[in-house]
Each structure stands twice: as C-alpha cells, then as structure tokens.
Design a protein that fits this description.
Elements: H1 11-15, E1 21-26, H2 40-58, E2 63-65, H3 89-105, E3 110-115, H4 123-129, E4 137-142, H5 162-171, H6 193-196, H7 206-209, H8 223-246
Parallel strand pairs: 1-2, 1-3, 3-4
Helix pairs in contact: 2-5, 2-8, 5-8
C-alpha cells in the first residue's frame, strides 16, 4: 500500500493521517500515432504523479494522489476518429467543481491539477471556480512544459513524439509497439506566417496536420532518455508538492 495513492489506500490509513494537499492527474483518451496506446496521456500522468508524490512523501509532505480523469478536449480531425473521447470544457468544469466541492467540505485547502494533455487548458476554469472556494489554493502543473524538449531529446513535436514515446518506453514498455511500426509524425504547418509566429492562434485540424496522428518523430526515443527526463520532471514537481504542503496560505506573497 502506498499511503499517498488514494486507489491503494484504506480507511484506517486515511482516518489516522492528516493530508495537506490533493493531487488530481488529468489526461485524455485519443490516438497517439501507431505505436502508443490511447491512454498515453492518462497513464503517464498517473505515474508521474505517483513518482513525484513518493519523493515528496519521503520528505514529509502529506499529500494524496486522486484517481485520474481520462477525458480531454480534442481537435477537429481527431474527434471523428474511433474511440477518441472528446469532453467539452463545460463538462470538465463540472467534474472539477464536484471534486473541489467534495475536498473543500472535507477540509482540504490545497489542490494541484496535474495536467498531461496539451488540449486541456484549465486556467479560465480555475479563475471561474476560485470564488466558490475563497480560502482554497488551486493550482495547475503542466508536466510536459516544465523543460524544453531540446534539453533532453533530439526531436521536437508535441504529440506521440520522441519525448512522449520515451516516457512510455520507460513506464510502460509492454504497451509501446516496435518503433519501426510508428509513423514519422510529420506535421504540416500553417501557410499563414502570422500563425506560425504565434501572432494569432487557432486549433489545428488534426487530420490535415498529420497522417498518423503524431506530431514529432518518435524514432530516436528510448527508455533511458525517458528515465533521465522523468527524474528531472518528478524532482521538480515533488519540490513543489513539498513547498505547497509546508506553506502558510495566509502568507503566500513576499
């Protein structure tokens, strides 16, 4: 039993232990090229949450990792693909509100949403919900944005790419198909220069961007690269968990 993983924890443990922070992993269910499973975002985010929580727990932080939410917002061109599960922002907000309400009524005042899907953007949701929980600290961590890809990997991309493939090869090698079966993750760019330069933004129409649903070449991925990357990622997240667990919410600002 890991006392910081709710799905593995029993009532005796929880009854006799005060917890300071609740962690909610949030992923998606969608195609990830030909070599990674549909549950990639949720699977890897759960493991990252657990590893970071273990490091934080060993430093005295009393935190609890909740069961993951595997429902993400998807782009056109993916929504139509079989078993790609698209969840509206309004639905995500209702789910999050219900979870926060339960935790709030139970006395939890520190909350971290650990996001593992690029299509999810919870900032406006948190801004909208925060007034309902005025003395609760609600925060978001996008683990895939903590380091630039170039710091650990050779190839860029943001979906079933070298980084994400390396993570899955380390955590779930049995769920990763041989890399020779993977598509190259070639992605078309917008013709409008302003969109390329992020002067403006619009959702990518996925089937017009990628033939294999991937964005970024996964061929140079390895479990060893994933291990080194995840060591740094979970260290950084664990440090945040420890700091948050030990801080006074009435004294957050310098």
């Amino acid at each position: 039993m890991r006392p910081y993983i709710l799905e593995e924890t029993n009532w005796r443990q929880i009854k006799n232990q005060k917890y300071d922070v609740a962690i909610l992993p949030w992923g998606a269910t969608e195609p990830h090229n030909y070599h990674l499973p549909y549950g990639t975002d949720s699977l890897e985010t759960c493991r990252i949450a657990a590893d970071a929580a273990q490091k934080a727990w060993e430093k005295g932080a009393k935190i609890m990792v909740l069961p993951a939410i595997p429902l993400g917002i998807q782009n056109m061109g993916q929504i139509e693909l079989p078993f790609c599960l698209h969840t509206r922002l309004s639905t995500q907000q209702m789910i999050l509100e219900d979870i926060l309400t339960a935790l709030y009524n139970q006395g939890i005042r520190k909350f971290v949403l650990l996001n593992g899907h690029g299509g999810n953007d919870f900032k406006q949701v948190v801004r909208d919900l925060q007034p309902e929980f005025p003395d609760m600290f609600i925060s978001i961590v996008n683990w895939f944005k903590l380091f630039p890809n170039a710091q650990h990997f050779e190839e860029e991309g943001d979906h079933a790419n070298e980084m994400e493939t390396s993570v899955m090869m380390h955590y779930f090698p049995g769920l990763v198909a041989p890399l020779e079966e993977a598509g190259e993750g070639k992605a078309k760019k917008f013709k409008l220069k302003n969109l390329q330069e992020n002067v403006a933004w619009t959702p990518r129409h996925w089937d017009k961007v990628s033939e294999d649903t991937g964005v970024g070449n996964p061929k140079k991925a390895s479990a060893e690269k994933g291990k080194k990357f995840l060591y740094d990622v979970t260290d950084k997240i664990a440090d945040y968990f420890v700091g948050l667990a030990g801080c006074d919410l009435d004294d957050l600002y310098e």
